[in-house]
Amino acid sequence: MPTNTPRQIDAVQKTCRILEYLQDSGGAGVTEIAEELEFSKSVVHAHLATLNEENLVVKDGYTYSLGLKFLDIAETAKNGVADHEIVRNQVRELAEGTGEVVHFGAEENGRVVYVAKSKGESAVETASRVGKRMPMHSTSLGKAILAEFSEDAVEQIVDQHGLPEQTEHTITDEERLYEDLDTIRDRGYSIDNQENIPGVRCIGISVSAPEAGVLGALSISGPSQRMTDDRIENELKETIAQAANVIEVNSRYQ
Protein backbone atom coordinates (compact mmCIF):
# COMPACT_ATOMS: atom_id res chain seq x y z
CA MET A 1 0.00 0.00 0.00
CA PRO A 2 1.40 3.46 -0.86
CA THR A 3 2.52 5.52 2.11
CA ASN A 4 3.59 9.10 2.69
CA THR A 5 6.35 7.95 5.04
CA PRO A 6 9.77 8.57 3.44
CA ARG A 7 11.89 5.47 2.79
CA GLN A 8 14.47 5.03 5.52
CA ILE A 9 17.90 3.44 5.27
CA ASP A 10 18.64 0.97 8.07
CA ALA A 11 22.42 1.35 7.76
CA VAL A 12 22.22 5.12 8.12
CA GLN A 13 20.02 4.77 11.21
CA LYS A 14 22.60 2.43 12.75
CA THR A 15 25.36 4.94 11.99
CA CYS A 16 23.38 7.72 13.69
CA ARG A 17 22.79 5.61 16.79
CA ILE A 18 26.49 4.76 17.01
CA LEU A 19 27.46 8.44 16.73
CA GLU A 20 24.88 9.40 19.37
CA TYR A 21 26.25 6.74 21.71
CA LEU A 22 29.81 8.01 21.22
CA GLN A 23 28.60 11.52 21.98
CA ASP A 24 26.86 10.45 25.20
CA SER A 25 29.61 8.11 26.38
CA GLY A 26 32.61 10.23 25.39
CA GLY A 27 34.19 7.25 23.69
CA ALA A 28 33.76 3.47 23.58
CA GLY A 29 35.00 0.25 22.05
CA VAL A 30 33.32 -2.08 19.60
CA THR A 31 32.16 -4.58 22.23
CA GLU A 32 30.60 -1.94 24.48
CA ILE A 33 28.76 -0.27 21.60
CA ALA A 34 27.53 -3.59 20.25
CA GLU A 35 26.20 -4.64 23.66
CA GLU A 36 24.56 -1.31 24.46
CA LEU A 37 22.92 -0.87 21.05
CA GLU A 38 22.28 -4.60 20.50
CA PHE A 39 24.12 -4.65 17.17
CA SER A 40 26.51 -7.36 16.10
CA LYS A 41 30.22 -6.62 16.60
CA SER A 42 30.84 -7.02 12.87
CA VAL A 43 28.22 -4.36 12.05
CA VAL A 44 29.62 -1.94 14.63
CA HIS A 45 33.20 -2.52 13.44
CA ALA A 46 32.24 -1.92 9.79
CA HIS A 47 30.45 1.32 10.62
CA LEU A 48 33.30 2.58 12.79
CA ALA A 49 35.91 1.71 10.17
CA THR A 50 34.00 3.74 7.59
CA LEU A 51 33.48 6.66 9.96
CA ASN A 52 37.17 6.60 10.84
CA GLU A 53 38.10 6.67 7.17
CA GLU A 54 35.89 9.74 6.74
CA ASN A 55 37.47 11.42 9.80
CA LEU A 56 34.14 11.49 11.66
CA VAL A 57 35.51 9.31 14.44
CA VAL A 58 39.05 8.75 15.70
CA LYS A 59 40.55 5.57 17.12
CA ASP A 60 42.88 5.45 20.11
CA GLY A 61 43.81 1.87 20.82
CA TYR A 62 40.50 0.06 21.06
CA THR A 63 38.47 3.18 21.83
CA TYR A 64 36.57 5.27 19.30
CA SER A 65 35.42 8.86 19.86
CA LEU A 66 33.94 11.65 17.77
CA GLY A 67 36.35 13.41 15.43
CA LEU A 68 37.03 17.13 15.22
CA LYS A 69 35.46 17.21 11.76
CA PHE A 70 32.17 17.67 13.59
CA LEU A 71 33.41 21.11 14.70
CA ASP A 72 33.47 22.26 11.10
CA ILE A 73 30.06 20.71 10.45
CA ALA A 74 28.64 22.33 13.59
CA GLU A 75 29.93 25.80 12.69
CA THR A 76 28.35 25.55 9.25
CA ALA A 77 25.04 24.44 10.77
CA LYS A 78 25.05 27.24 13.34
CA ASN A 79 25.79 29.88 10.72
CA GLY A 80 22.80 28.58 8.78
CA VAL A 81 20.56 29.86 11.59
CA ALA A 82 22.03 33.36 11.96
CA ASP A 83 25.43 35.06 11.94
CA HIS A 84 26.89 32.92 14.69
CA GLU A 85 29.59 35.42 15.66
CA ILE A 86 26.92 38.06 16.31
CA VAL A 87 24.77 35.54 18.21
CA ARG A 88 27.73 34.38 20.30
CA ASN A 89 28.71 37.97 21.15
CA GLN A 90 25.19 38.93 22.20
CA VAL A 91 24.77 35.79 24.29
CA ARG A 92 28.08 36.46 26.05
CA GLU A 93 27.29 40.14 26.67
CA LEU A 94 23.85 39.29 28.05
CA ALA A 95 25.38 36.74 30.42
CA GLU A 96 28.04 39.20 31.58
CA GLY A 97 25.49 41.98 32.04
CA THR A 98 22.88 39.95 33.92
CA GLY A 99 25.09 37.42 35.68
CA GLU A 100 22.73 34.63 34.57
CA VAL A 101 22.70 31.78 32.04
CA VAL A 102 21.86 32.93 28.51
CA HIS A 103 20.89 30.71 25.57
CA PHE A 104 20.13 31.15 21.90
CA GLY A 105 18.04 28.37 20.42
CA ALA A 106 16.38 27.48 17.13
CA GLU A 107 13.49 25.20 16.20
CA GLU A 108 14.19 22.00 14.31
CA ASN A 109 11.69 19.16 13.79
CA GLY A 110 9.44 20.45 16.54
CA ARG A 111 12.15 20.77 19.17
CA VAL A 112 14.22 23.74 20.30
CA VAL A 113 17.96 23.19 19.87
CA TYR A 114 20.53 25.12 21.91
CA VAL A 115 22.81 26.93 19.44
CA ALA A 116 24.79 29.11 21.87
CA LYS A 117 25.20 29.33 25.64
CA SER A 118 27.07 31.57 28.09
CA LYS A 119 27.15 31.79 31.88
CA GLY A 120 27.44 34.95 33.98
CA GLU A 121 29.15 35.25 37.35
CA SER A 122 26.04 34.36 39.36
CA ALA A 123 24.74 31.68 37.00
CA VAL A 124 23.36 28.42 38.31
CA GLU A 125 24.64 25.27 36.62
CA THR A 126 22.18 23.56 34.30
CA ALA A 127 22.37 20.43 32.16
CA SER A 128 21.93 22.44 28.97
CA ARG A 129 24.61 22.25 26.30
CA VAL A 130 24.98 23.44 22.73
CA GLY A 131 23.26 20.95 20.46
CA LYS A 132 20.87 19.61 23.09
CA ARG A 133 17.22 19.35 22.05
CA MET A 134 14.45 20.37 24.41
CA PRO A 135 10.64 20.45 24.35
CA MET A 136 9.19 23.69 23.04
CA HIS A 137 6.12 23.89 25.29
CA SER A 138 8.10 23.92 28.56
CA THR A 139 10.96 26.28 27.68
CA SER A 140 10.94 30.05 27.28
CA LEU A 141 12.95 29.65 24.06
CA GLY A 142 10.44 27.22 22.62
CA LYS A 143 7.36 29.17 23.66
CA ALA A 144 8.77 32.42 22.27
CA ILE A 145 9.23 30.68 18.92
CA LEU A 146 5.83 28.95 19.03
CA ALA A 147 4.17 32.33 19.59
CA GLU A 148 5.48 33.38 16.17
CA PHE A 149 4.10 30.29 14.42
CA SER A 150 0.65 29.84 12.92
CA GLU A 151 -1.92 27.82 14.85
CA ASP A 152 -1.62 25.02 12.29
CA ALA A 153 2.15 24.85 12.78
CA VAL A 154 1.75 24.73 16.57
CA GLU A 155 -0.86 21.98 16.26
CA GLN A 156 1.48 19.90 14.12
CA ILE A 157 4.24 20.16 16.73
CA VAL A 158 1.85 19.28 19.56
CA ASP A 159 0.52 16.31 17.58
CA GLN A 160 4.07 15.14 16.89
CA HIS A 161 5.57 15.51 20.37
CA GLY A 162 2.65 15.95 22.74
CA LEU A 163 2.91 18.08 25.88
CA PRO A 164 4.89 15.86 28.29
CA GLU A 165 5.22 16.98 31.89
CA GLN A 166 8.74 18.13 32.78
CA THR A 167 7.85 19.50 36.24
CA GLU A 168 4.66 20.02 38.20
CA HIS A 169 4.43 23.50 36.63
CA THR A 170 4.60 22.36 32.99
CA ILE A 171 1.67 23.27 30.77
CA THR A 172 0.27 19.91 29.63
CA ASP A 173 -3.13 21.12 28.41
CA GLU A 174 -3.38 22.29 24.80
CA GLU A 175 -5.92 25.02 25.54
CA ARG A 176 -3.72 26.44 28.29
CA LEU A 177 -0.76 26.43 25.91
CA TYR A 178 -2.68 28.48 23.34
CA GLU A 179 -3.72 30.94 26.06
CA ASP A 180 -0.08 31.29 27.12
CA LEU A 181 1.00 31.89 23.52
CA ASP A 182 -1.62 34.65 23.21
CA THR A 183 -0.21 36.24 26.36
CA ILE A 184 3.31 36.04 24.93
CA ARG A 185 2.21 37.79 21.72
CA ASP A 186 0.56 40.60 23.72
CA ARG A 187 3.40 40.96 26.22
CA GLY A 188 6.28 40.55 23.77
CA TYR A 189 8.21 37.89 25.69
CA SER A 190 7.75 34.40 27.12
CA ILE A 191 8.25 33.09 30.64
CA ASP A 192 9.22 29.60 31.73
CA ASN A 193 7.92 29.58 35.30
CA GLN A 194 9.77 26.51 36.61
CA GLU A 195 8.13 24.57 33.79
CA ASN A 196 11.30 22.86 32.58
CA ILE A 197 13.55 22.79 35.66
CA PRO A 198 12.29 23.12 39.26
CA GLY A 199 13.44 26.36 40.87
CA VAL A 200 14.49 27.99 37.58
CA ARG A 201 12.62 30.77 35.79
CA CYS A 202 13.45 32.13 32.33
CA ILE A 203 12.47 34.99 30.04
CA GLY A 204 12.57 34.41 26.29
CA ILE A 205 12.15 36.54 23.19
CA SER A 206 11.97 35.54 19.54
CA VAL A 207 14.50 36.68 16.96
CA SER A 208 13.35 37.17 13.36
CA ALA A 209 14.62 38.43 10.02
CA PRO A 210 12.46 39.97 7.25
CA GLU A 211 13.06 37.28 4.62
CA ALA A 212 14.13 34.33 6.77
CA GLY A 213 11.29 34.57 9.28
CA VAL A 214 11.89 33.26 12.81
CA LEU A 215 15.62 32.61 13.30
CA GLY A 216 15.26 31.43 16.88
CA ALA A 217 15.03 32.94 20.35
CA LEU A 218 17.11 34.29 23.21
CA SER A 219 16.56 33.42 26.86
CA ILE A 220 17.88 34.44 30.26
CA SER A 221 17.61 31.80 33.02
CA GLY A 222 18.17 32.00 36.75
CA PRO A 223 16.90 30.87 40.14
CA SER A 224 13.30 31.83 40.79
CA GLN A 225 14.20 34.04 43.77
CA ARG A 226 16.29 36.26 41.47
CA MET A 227 14.10 36.00 38.38
CA THR A 228 11.19 37.87 39.92
CA ASP A 229 8.32 39.39 37.90
CA ASP A 230 9.61 42.85 38.85
CA ARG A 231 13.13 42.15 37.58
CA ILE A 232 11.84 40.58 34.39
CA GLU A 233 9.48 43.45 33.63
CA ASN A 234 11.68 46.38 34.69
CA GLU A 235 15.16 45.17 33.78
CA LEU A 236 15.48 42.01 31.73
CA LYS A 237 12.81 42.50 29.07
CA GLU A 238 14.49 45.63 27.75
CA THR A 239 17.97 44.11 27.93
CA ILE A 240 17.02 40.96 26.06
CA ALA A 241 15.01 42.92 23.48
CA GLN A 242 18.06 45.04 22.66
CA ALA A 243 20.20 41.94 22.14
CA ALA A 244 17.54 40.39 19.90
CA ASN A 245 17.41 43.58 17.87
CA VAL A 246 21.19 43.53 17.31
CA ILE A 247 20.98 39.98 15.93
CA GLU A 248 17.97 40.86 13.77
CA VAL A 249 19.58 43.98 12.29
CA ASN A 250 22.81 42.15 11.43
CA SER A 251 20.89 39.21 9.96
CA ARG A 252 19.35 41.51 7.34
CA TYR A 253 22.73 41.93 5.68
CA GLN A 254 23.79 38.30 5.47
UniProtKB/TrEMBL annotation:
Domain HTH iclR-type span(s) in chain numbering: 9-68
One Pfam family cited in the UniProt record for this chain: IclR_C
Record flagged with keyword Oxidoreductase: no
SMART domains, alphabetized: HTH_ICLR
SUPFAM superfamilies: GAF domain-like (SSF55781), Winged helix' DNA-binding domain (SSF46785)
Domain annotation IclR-ED: ranges: 69-253
CDD domains linked to this entry: HTH_ARSR (cd00090)
Native organism: Natronoarchaeum mannanilyticum
Database matches in PANTHER family: HELIX-TURN-HELIX TRANSCRIPTIONAL REGULATOR, ICLR FAMILY, HTH-TYPE TRANSCRIPTIONAL REGULATOR RV1719
UniProt-listed GO biological process terms: negative regulation of DNA-templated transcription
A molecular-function term among this protein's GO annotations: DNA-binding transcription factor activity
Keyword Transcription regulation: yes
InterPro entries named among the record's database cross-references: ArsR-like_HTH (IPR011991), GAF-like_dom_sf (IPR029016), HTH_MetabolicPath_Reg (IPR050707), Tscrpt_reg_IclR_C (IPR014757), Tscrpt_reg_IclR_N (IPR005471), WH-like_DNA-bd_sf (IPR036388), WH_DNA-bd_sf (IPR036390)
Keyword field: DNA-binding, Transcription, Transcription regulation
Protein name: IclR family transcriptional regulator
